[in-house]
Amino acid sequence: HTAQDFATLSRIGKVRRVGRLAATALRAYDIDVHTMRVHAFATNLLYRVQAKTGERFMLRMAYPGWRTLEDLRAEAAWLEALHRDTDIGAPLVVRAANGEQVLPMCGLGVPDTWYAMLMTWVDGRLLAHHLTSANLEQMGELFARLHLHGKRWEPPANFSTKRFEAFLSRGEPDVLFASDGVMQQFRDDDRRAFLQARAWVEREYSNLDRRDLRVIHCDLWHENIKVDHGRLRPFDFEDTIWGYRLHDIAMSMLDLLETVGSDRYAKLLAAFRCGYARRLDWPEGKLEADQPASLGLNAERGG
């Protein structure tokens, strides 16, 4: 009997197949597993794991081709440093019995390599359900604390050298602007609008102070933060990269604008800025100019 080709499986079938890899990955840790349940399957496949001791974890099986081994090791290194240097409350990547933080997993009827990472569980509810001025002040302060650490921290020698300093920055194929890209299907006026936006963003990036470059989260919006007994706790650091404070903030605030609308946004942005200023001066530059770059992220994903 030949196993059905992975690409032809239903969504449930793929989850079951990758689940075998996930269960194999868990055996590499010094944890006596009680339960492993699917938490979410979007780009990556996430599992909630509970040990017999009661400890809870999140196991992430990273989709092949989504983030590289270098990217994920950069994430793990920063999370370990944040855990050591701060009380920010980000998750910690659990090392396997062999000392590794990222485990390449393949086989068992699953094509390509899925990278397994086990992290401590982050308690709380998503900030998306609690978008108050008080919480946005805390969010601004959280950003500032991460930005301070990202500037002071000295990453290991093998840390990623990737930088987010252009409309598209991670090295993925340009599926939007390439000669055979998606944009060729657009109407002339739409193409002009995209080209103007790209030129605008590139000009603003070129004007940023290169001394402001630091390690940033690069995807810290209100669905990647939890409220835990009044305290904000960030997670999902897989986009960790060298970048600019303004870009980091701009991406988050664009998501906020799209969620709450322009009327509430102005008030919440002011609260965010107030919280940020408690720790750090607001970055120079035009916030709205960096926001089209987050649309570029979707272009990289083919979305």
SSE class: alpha+beta
What is the chain-wise order of helices and strands? HEEEHEEEEHHEEEEHHHH
By DSSP (H or I, 4+ residues per run), the number of helices equals 8
Number of strands: 11
Segments where pLDDT lies below 50 for 5+ residues?
Answer: 295-303
End-to-end separation: 37 Å
> What is the makeup of the main sheet?
6 strands, antiparallel
Radius of gyration: 20 Å
The helix fraction, in percent, is 25-40%
Strand proportion, as a percent range, falls in: 15-25%
Q: What does the overall shape look like?
A: globular
> If you average the pLDDT, what whole number results?
90
Describe the structure.
- The protein has helices at 11-26, 69-85, 133-152, 188-207, 245-260, 262-277, 287-290, 292-300, and strands at 33-41, 45-51, 56-62, 93-94, 103-107, 110-120, 125-126, 214-216, 225-228, 231-234, 241-243.
- With 303 residues, the protein is α+β, with helices and mostly antiparallel strands.
- 39% of the residues lie in helices and 19% in strands.
